[in-house]
Structure formats: structure tokens, C-alpha cells
Design a protein that fits this description.
- A hairpin with a 5-residue loop joins β3 and β4.
- This protein is α/β, with parallel strands linked by helices.
- The model has no long low-confidence stretch (mean pLDDT 90).
- It contains seven helices and seven strands; from the N terminus they run βαβαββαβαβααβα.
- α3 packs across α4 and α5 runs antiparallel to α6.
Length: 179
Amino acid sequence: MIVLNGGSSSGKSSIARALQEILPGIWLTFGVDTFIDALPGRGDSPRAGITYEQGGTIAFSTEHRAVERSWYTGLSAMARAGAHLILDEVLLSGGAGQERVRSTFGEADLIWVGVHCDPDVAARREAQRLDRVEGMARQQALSVHAGVVYDVVVNTTYRSTDECARDLANQLTLDAQPR
């Protein structure tokens, strides 16, 4: 399983879609947007347990975190059953979020990919998207990487998401070859 972690508007979803087209086999993409879309009001209802605060900060209720654990447990079962997964994530709590995912997936092989993007560039991209809360991209661009340990890092600031996906696929292919 490949875990793409990066801030809002960093290019994770575009990289995931490109990887689906170039990696061997069938890869399924799930992520934070898929999870949020499944919540009450697509995440905008108070019943979803998400609070969007000024400046792009996001807070979660205890009930939301419990549902999130169930989400990861379901994805983990799919991975254990043999499905190839790309998880498109925004680990708002950085290393603590990585540990939550890692502990849920247990023995599954996880490849951690940091998707970096300059905060100013991410903010410009965010401004062009109607489905984003202003300030999230800038606030998340660096904070989601705090304390996270990666196997591979890509940077979409000056490179296209297709180029980043090709580099990543090449790296994964090289790592999979016997030495």
C-alpha cells in the first residue's frame, strides 16, 4: 500500500490517479476526501464531527476519530485480502497521524510518500478550487510533514504531478527488483 501524505492542494490526488495508470496491476485509491464525502453532509454537517476554524485549522470530535479508526480498519482488511491501495492522506497531526495509520494497518507493507509543495504555490492552487476552506493549504503545507518518516519524497512546487508519479513509480520499481 502506498500512503501519499501532503497538505491540501499539494497534488496528492493527481499523483494517485497518475500512479493508477502506470503501476502494474489494479490500484484502488482511497483517501481523506473519500472518507469526508461519506460523512453526514459530506463533512459539512455538525454530525460529521469536524470543525473548520479560522486560518484553515481543523478539529475533530472523539466520535469522528472512532469512525476514522473504523475506516482505516476496513482499508486494512482490503490490503490484507490482496488489494493494492493508494491512500491519499492529509496527516494533520503529522507523526502522530502516521502512527495511527501504521498501528491500524499492522503488518501490511506501507510505502510512505511525502508530497511537498511550497505554501505559496499550494495557496494559489487552493484559491482556484471551490471546494476548499481558505487558508488550509498554507497552514498544512509544512505541518502535515512534522515528525513523519518517509520512504520517498516528491515535490510538486515546480514539477508536474505526472512527473512526480513517474519518478515515484520508477523508485518503487527499482526498490522491488532483487539486488
